[in-house]
Protein 1
Amino acid sequence: MKTNKIIILLSVMAFLLYTISCGSKHVSIRKSANPEVAYFCPMDTMINEANPGQCTVCGMNLIKNPNYSGEEINTVVVTSTGDTLHE
Ligand SMILES: [Zn+2]
């Protein structure tokens, strides 16, 4: 009888410890990333992609970066006659 009580007590304590440790796990969710990043995973800070898709770590859909600068590389060519060409 006494052993059962000890087992129950231990399992309750283990459960409490587990709950406390899970509860304190700090999950930081990213809402934006550096301006050069087009898409990122909100859960995994190392996942930054140029194209939409799924995170290779957690499988979540990547989020479009609201800070993305979207820098288009504008190449301007000046010909020998002084004309400018945009590529
Ligand atoms: Zn992820």
Note: The two ends are 85 Å apart (CA to CA).
Protein 2
Amino acid sequence: MALRLREIKLHLEEDETLLPARIAESLGLDPAELHNLKLVRKGIDARRKSAILKVYTVEFEVADEVEVLKRQADNPHLSKVDPPAPFTPLVSTPGRKVIVVGMGPAGLFAALNLRRSGAEVLLVERGKPVAERLQDVQTFWSGGSLNPHSNIQFGEGGAGTFSDGKLTTRINHPLVTEVLQSLVDFGAPEEILWQAKPHIGSDRLRKVLVRMRKKLRDEGVEIRFSTCLTGIEQAGGRLAGAILNGDQFEACDSLVLAVGHSARDTYRMLQQSQIALESKSFAIGLRVEHPLELINQIQYGLPSHPQLGAAEYALAWQDKQAGRGVYSFCMCPGGVVVNASSEAGGVVVNGMSDFKRDAACSNSALVVTVGRADFSSADPLAGVAFQRHWEEQAFTAAGSTGSVPGQPLLGFLNGTSGDLKTSCQPAVVAADLSQVLPAAVSEALRRALPQFERRMRGFVGPEAMLLGVETRTSAPLRILREDHGCSVSLPGLFPAGEGAGYAGGIMSAAIDGIKTANHVTCHLNSF
Ligand SMILES: Cc1cc2nc3c(=O)[nH]c(=O)nc-3n(C[C@H](O)[C@H](O)[C@H](O)COP(=O)(O)OP(=O)(O)OC[C@H]3O[C@@H](n4cnc5c(N)ncnc54)[C@H](O)[C@@H]3O)c2cc1C
């Protein structure tokens, strides 16, 4: 049995070699009595800028844990470590075939676990392998044409491939460690296992994907790129198979639908196939960008420090007047703003960072909650139409060239334009950003910004730039499923991940993929 001690503090300048002494001192032990020390968590506490602290959780062994626990009974930071129950995927009835659609985190982890359960797995992805996808994205970012099947939203790794690769989640589940460990096994940096706010960065994530693809193939998963699910076949009231690329029928016993939040043609196909969908609320807004040193100064009281990474922030405010939440989302410290469009005639922005987070700026989305009352009809796809409308407004506002519309934050507040300074490639065009958002959203943002300035002095200033429009914050609809994971409309069909409306973010999508794999295996064993 091991012990775990939390809240172990070191000053910024203090070296981690002091940790054993700090632990021993707080427990009344000699450092020599501590064995097998393991770092399980490291975070930064910058609430007092004059005394920023590194805060650790460490597991270790001592000769007599029971005695130490008894002596330290009133120490709220000390506990014994119960090893997590190993997660063992279920075993599938041999010879069952599953098609997994989408190579985002949900599809990848579903395919891996279904294969390990013994099912025959075909994994299809409408986009391309990550290296070719990167070329298509770089072509688009350097002024070339947008590939509607290979872009920031579509391709190996899914939407998160060009991202900050933040692995934070509100889910408290043993699968979190399972997913993190798998990512490390595929080459992700070890520190994601103990960082308080783990992130991989786009550069490292691309390498992880290549190794994961090799592993999937080595385990016998068939992978087909540039293969789009365009229809589903039903027989006898249950799923019979998939239609791929318009005319190829592929029979299967089950299908995992992990298509992400931007597969609008697939949503349309599901609606036409009488699969139950419902629109759901999400958030829309603009991406704000500041110089990295300014955000560091605001958060740390220092423009930079060798012991401190690029500073993060999280802002939230409830706009009681409008009954909407306004919050920062998907923050990318030391990253860039990206043109994340996936459709001709529409412009969408998002953010991305590399592992080192060493770019000159930091950005995040500032978004406002919207829901059915904001959509033009009760159609389940009304949220999709709403997103598309404002993306088209953004396209038009930037001169209908595919460029991104931008405005200095102060200009957005007082209705003026100004010089634009941004990391976003290839081109940003000055525009009035209140033209790319519903009035209710612009007004809520204008009411929230002074609140955010109160919390982060300097946030609202001449160096802050806004770019639009941020619409893909989560799925605009839910593909309705039963508790056991199956679509309410079609036995054998398993909606999963963010696109199904049951996850948000890389980690929660991966976990939903694993849970769905288990639901599928139970289903396969039931007939
Ligand atoms: C730019 C950007 C930055 C982000 N940053 C972060 C971050 O830092 N941290 C975080 O947690 N989350 C981040 N996210 C969100 C995160 O990427 C998603 O929540 C997550 O990827 C959802 O996983 P998923 O597997 O459900 O779907 P996706 O990752 O969207 O994958 C779906 C896959 O299905 C494929 N597909 C779609 N339709 C079909 C079809 N008909 N046939 C075949 N294949 C199809 C798509 O091409 C895609 O590859 C970011 C998203 C973006 C766009």
Note: The first strand starts at residue 2 and ends at 11.
